[in-house]
Structures
1.
Amino acid sequence: MNVARSIEEARRLRRTMPESVGLVPTMGFLHEGHLALVRRAAAENRSTVVSLFVNPTQFGPAEDYTTYPRDLERDLSLLDAEGVDLVFAPTAEGLYPPGYDSWIDVGELGTRLEGAARPGHFRGVATVVTKLFHIVRPHRAYFGEKDAQQLAVIRKLTDDLDFDIEIVGCPIVRDPDGVAMSSRNTYLSARQRDSATALSRSLTLASDMWRGGERNAAVIRHAMESLLLAEPDTAIDYISIANPDTLLEIPWLDGPALISLAVRVGKTRLIDNTRIPPGFPK
Ligand code: AMP
């Protein structure tokens, strides 16, 4: 497995790779959710590239950029075991040298939900993904449905900016207790981990209510809220029941919907989502 720490090295190694090339962008501290993306990329392409980069421009000033978990050695050995061809692990200065000042702004889609809670977040995401697309020139790029809005934003930017890249969305991987895998789960105490199960339980409750015939979004949102707030240490950032394409809130679930939420468990901010009807494609 090759490891490139600079853009030049990544470009040089990319030129030697048999095509097609699949790219999996990550912030590292890998778990089975990431590895599911890697396996899918490896199955669908002749060459697989994984990027490991905690992208400073997608973190707000009060967020966890400096404390975000990192373990390059462990990540490299996991990726080596998966048969990955190239790992691109640039430095922050490498991608954003002094004077760097060009940005990709995804517009309205990036202002809702996570974008409203984390101003500038999607500008940072869209910018780094655009840079990775230019450096790696993949045929396909793999993203998790765990970050549903991010996936929607990346589909939009790929379309709007005419990238000739297939964006592949992959299902959410969960731990046996239902918690969606996330590098940030490592911040949780054992007791907070119990509270964190409320996110997926509230989504299951919403799906069950929908299956039972409930179509009023306010009623479903209220039931989710009660379930979440019954747990110690939880604070709700938002519960959204929205059109999966526009991410605009819908009052009635009479068509496809994306139910998503952001909840703070102690100081840790967690997100999760599900689709109605369950499994409905993006
Ligand atoms: P991150 O390292 O958190 O930026 O995530 C890198 C990629 O892995 C993103 O496309 C995420 O949506 C995806 N991902 C993270 N956690 C999961 C999960 N539990 N299931 C599926 N995909 C995930």
Note: Strands lie at 2-4, 21-26, 47-52, 86-88, 140-144, 166-170, 234-242, 257-265, 268-276.
2.
Amino acid sequence: MTARPPIEERFPRPSVMGVVNATPDSFSGDGLYLHLEPATAEAYAMLDCGAAIIDVGGESTRPGAAPVDSEEELRRVEPVLAGLAGEPVSIDTSKSAVARRALELGAELVNDVTALRGDPELAGVVADAGAYLCLMHMQGEPRTMQQAPRYDDVVSEVKAFLEERLEFAVGAGIAEERICLDPGFGFGKTTDHNFELLRRLGELADLGRPLLVGLSRKSSLGKIMGDPAATTGTATASVAAALAAYERGAWIVRAHDVRDHVEALRVAEVVARP
Ligand code: HH2
């Protein structure tokens, strides 16, 4: 196995990660992908628009979503992964069985929203494959995480958590240069927590690893428009949030509306580095 280059080289800043959900209940309303042909077609369209990688997920992590077992998750994602053979793919899973199969099918990044706390075998699977890894912060678990999120200082708590998970992952044999970190917008966080994290994202960049951010269509973006019951945000609000994140050091941006994000980030990039 040839060692993969550092994640910063493989996915230069800014890179857009396109989201393909093979789930019936994604919060963002794009769970069209139970029919697998459209999922694969959508992924190719995202690549054509400039996505650097496609994140394929078979289990919804929206607040209150029901967990699924490995068999069902694999049944959902395998055909999409097979249809994307040879393309840059990330698997959004916390399960070692799903990650193992996805890596066999060519996925190069494991996006684990539990930051290696969900399945004790996942770290070994990532290490053995020499795969890239995203470690994300979440307070609580998807079913209950939005009930009463609480922090004394959300930024320093998220930072300490990511530092500890990074140390754990490296201790488990995963090369630090293949790891990126994610504050987990919306995962056990109020709207105020999310915007505090976004405002002070630079403090997380101090951890020395590339930051992945997933703000796309998140409910906080709808809530600040005046609808306290909003469950999603618009593409326009998502792009604005992505730009704010980029200006504060974000490296990889996870997004549903890929063309909008690629074009906006290109402008921001040229402004920052003529
Ligand atoms: N957000 C979602 C899922 N996976 N992974 C990372 N690293 N960061 C995120 O912010 C993140 C994530 C939730 O969004 P979505 O995939 O659109 O919805 P669902 O989980 O319902 O499929």
Note: Strands lie at 15-21, 53-57, 89-92, 109-112, 132-136, 179-182, 212-213, 252-255.
